[in-house]
Amino acid sequence: GAGVSQSPRYKVAKRGQDVALRCDPISGHVSLFWYQQALGQGPEFLTYFQNEAQLDKSGLPSDRFFAERPEGSVSTLKIQRTQQEDSAVYLCASSLLQGAATEAFFGQGTRLTVV
Amino acid sequence: AQSVTQLDSQVPVFEEAPVELRCNYSSSVSVYLFWYVQYPNQGLQLLLKYLSGSTLVESINGFEAEFNKSQTSFHLRKPSVHISDTAEYFCAVSGSTGFQKLVFGTGTRLLVSP
């Protein structure tokens, strides 16, 4: 596709349930990022991939959060045993290169509601 | 580490009036600065960025921002706004080395009314 695609767009999970959020980056983009945006806040960095390598996962809030990008394209963010504080919009972004100056393109996000 | 402050959560303005959205940052290293816009039901879109060189940067739709190192600011301005400019605007900063790890402000909602 022409842009970054995320699915599902909306997800309602019962507390304690596991969820998986998918990101299809722009084809050929080396870098992939996940951000978490709580209501009324700006996005916060979760993790970064360069191709299939996860180079920074310092923003993952707990060991219940896990991300992968096994073939260097599609990425999945998994949240185990969801809790109410996990409710947020999860944004994926990709960029062609790895440098700080390279433009990042964002998907529309997945809105996760934990009930 | 970097941080960004957007003091105004909401800015109401009339169509064709000028507007300024404020952004201040802090960082111990050299930075790149960005403004992103989020229209209703859409993803974040890059509006403009400062990497180096001229401190005044412009977007294709009439916005401009000026990097002021001494005041650690990167305010966004437009001399005459349109209804279609109604959106959420996020200021962001990243270090100038390594990968682009964006630190965002909390956003400013620009509300343009006729």
Summarize this, please?
Chain A is an all-beta fold. Chain A has strands spanning 5-7, 10-13, 19-24, 31-37, 44-50, 53-56, 65-68, 75-79, 88-95, 105-106, 110-114.
Could you characterize what this model shows?
- The complex is a heterodimer of chains A (115) and B (114).
- Chain A has 115 residues and is mainly beta.
- In chain A, 0% of the residues lie in helices and 48% in strands.
- Chain A has strands at 5-7, 10-13, 19-24, 31-37, 44-50, 53-56, 65-68, 75-79, 88-95, 105-106, 110-114.
- In chain A, strands 2, 4, 5, 6, 9, 10 and 11 form a seven-stranded mixed β-sheet that branches. In chain A, strands 1-3-8-7 form a four-stranded antiparallel β-sheet, with no helix packed on it.
- Chain B is mostly beta strands and 114 residues long.
- Helix content of chain B is 0%, strand content 54%.
- Chain B has no helices and twelve strands.
- Chain B has strands spanning 2-5, 10-14, 19-21, 24-27, 31-38, 45-50, 56-58, 64-68, 73-78, 87-95, 103-104, 108-113.
- In chain B, the strands form three sheets. In chain B, strands 2, 5, 6, 10, 11 and 12 form a six-stranded mixed β-sheet that branches. In chain B, strands 3-9-8-7 form a four-stranded antiparallel β-sheet, with no helix packed on it. In chain B, strands 1-4 form a two-stranded antiparallel sheet.
- Chain B is globular, with a radius of gyration of 14 Å.
- Classes of the chains: A mainly beta (115), B mainly beta (114).
- At the A-B interface, strand 4, strand 5, strand 9 and strand 10 of A face strand 6, strand 10 and strand 11 of B.
Count of separate DSSP helical elements of chain A: 0
Radius of gyration of chain B: 14 Å
- Class computed from helices, strands and strand pairing of chain B: mainly beta
Main beta sheet of chain B: strand number and arrangement? Answer: 6 strands, mixed
Order of helices and strands of chain B: EEEEEEEEEEEE
Q: Please report the total strand number of chain A as a whole number.
A: 11
Radius of gyration of chain A, taken over Cα atoms and rounded to an integer in Å: 13 Å
> From the helix content, strand content and strand pairing of chain A, which structural class follows?
mainly beta
Q: Could you tell me the number of beta strands of chain B?
A: 12
Largest interface, counted with CB-CB under 8 A?
A: A-B, 30 and 28 residues
Q: Level of helix content of chain B?
A: under 10%
Low-pLDDT runs of 5+ residues of chain A are none
**Helix proportion of chain A:** under 10%
Number of helices of chain B: 0
Provide the residue-averaged pLDDT of chain A: 95
> What is the general shape of chain A?
globular
What is the makeup of the main sheet of chain A?
7 strands, mixed
Strand residue content of chain B: over 45%
Q: Terminal Cα separation of chain A, in Å?
A: 33 Å
Beta-strand proportion of chain A: over 45%
